Amino acid sequence: MRPDAEDQHTEPSPEEPEQGTKKDKGKKKGSFWKELPVLIAVAVILALTIKAFAVQAFYIPSGSMENTLLVGDRVLVNKIVFHTRDVTRGDVVVFKGPPSWQPEVQVSKPTNIVSKAARWVGTAFGVAPTEKDYIKRVIGIPGDHVKCCDAQGRITVNGVALNEQAYIYTDPNDHEQDKPSESPFDVTLQKGQLWVMGDHRSNSLDSRAHQDGPDNGSIPTKNVIGRAFVKVWPLNRMGTIPIPSTFKQPALKHSQASAPLPAPDPGPVPAFAAVILPMAIGIRFRR
User: Fold this and answer.
1) 189 neighbors 271 (Cβ within 8 angstroms)
2) Is residue 31 among the annotated active site residues?
3) Within a 10 A sphere around the Cβ of 226, how many other Cβ atoms?
4) Residue pLDDT, tens place only, 247-285
5) Pick the catalytic residue: 22, 28, 51, 64?
6) Is 202 a catalytic residue?
7) pTM for this one?
8) Residues of 236-270 as b/e, b for ≥16 C-beta within 10 angstroms?
9) Alpha-carbon distance 173 to 190, whole Å?
10) How buried is residue 187: exposed, middle or buried, by Cβ count under 10 Å (0-12/13-18/19+)?
């Protein structure tokens, strides 16, 4: 006698659901490791795009801006702000040094491809110094007459004396403050020129040290990368970098404003990002 269809039906083994669950977990785990390189690539591309256009971290390699910035500090630099407003007196700016400017610190050149890659990553994310990028405070803008010094030893801009005690370097041991400048200068800035100085006046190779150059020590506004606006490392020194009140004196405003900086060159990173990002997002959300 043939067994009924019901008799032929076998109950599933209680182990089968567990096996299915294990397979599902294995698939999910494998999927994660496959997607991880894509996610890392997306993160790097986003970081480089932000660095190219908006905000970049910089490492402080020298003491030329003490006590405002110390060696080893990391600052964030706003690369957009000077495309919406002009460079202002008192701004702390990062800029490309003109050809006649020598590096304030000597950075050893990478000797192999690994060290070159490490240096590139380090400078890109603000954990290693760059050789030709400088950070200084803007003292004069185009049209300004910048002079050192008046009878009280103060720097004047358009005949108005600056009170710089709030930010000029003070020795932490003897509490003696630097003079505004040991070397004299008398410069009228032309269109597209800035006069910049470090806050540690006795330890800064700034505009004063390059007066024998083609632009009398000034730097071109086009060389400005952006404004340092916040200290982010170390954590106990985190804080903003404001414009001192002495630069807000109404009498200083008579000179002409500097021209806005040119729009940034898109370059290869954003173009690459425009192609890769949609593909990466598609890979992630197609599943």
Assistant:
1) no
2) no
3) 22
4) 999 988 755 444 445 544 444 444 434 444 444 434 343
5) 64
6) no
7) 0.71
8) eeeeebeebebbeeeebeebeebeebeeeeeeebe
9) 40
10) buried
